[in-house]
Design a protein that fits this description.
The chain has 138 residues and is mainly alpha-helical. The protein is built from 7 helices and no strands.
Length: 138
């Protein structure tokens, strides 16, 4: 009995597969252009993702990072300002930095303004980039 049921199931599966294959062939012939464009789009999407990963991968932070304390000292950046700079580099807002350091947002604004002066920057991104160039941030 089980053998008959299994054989019957296999025949139904084979018939369903055959019908789906015929339907696919009919659909592929009727919509060949769309299928070709879709395959090309998927290919270029995959290529773009692969290139993006290869070209724009950030290098892994090395365990051997040593902060350039000479640059920090020559610019007169205090340890508290360096903490603020690290939190800026992490993408935190002034309120988030204030909460993390348990100071007021106005104090954070003062630290950020002094960092801009010392690093000769006008924006957060410029200050972070300059600090990375000087070796103060990983």
């Amino acid at each position: 009995m089980a053998r008959t049921v299994l054989l019957y199931g296999l025949l139904l599966a084979a018939g369903t597969f055959l019908l789906q294959w015929f339907d696919y062939r009919r659909m592929a012939q009727g919509h060949a252009g769309e299928i070709y464009l879709g395959a090309m789009a998927l290919g270029f999407t995959g290529l773009g993702v692969w290139l993006g990963v290869k070209l724009f991968r950030r290098p892994a932070a090395s365990a051997g990072f040593e902060r350039n304390t000479k640059a920090q000292a020559s610019l007169g950046i205090s340890s508290r300002e360096l903490e603020v700079l690290e939190l800026l580099a992490a993408g935190r807002s002034n309120k988030e930095i204030a909460a993390a350091l348990t100071v007021s947002p106005n104090t954070v604004k003062t630290h950020v303004a002094r960092l801009y002066e010392k690093l000769e920057a006008r924006r957060r991104t410029e200050a972070i980039l300059r600090a990375r160039e000087l070796g103060m941030l990983p």
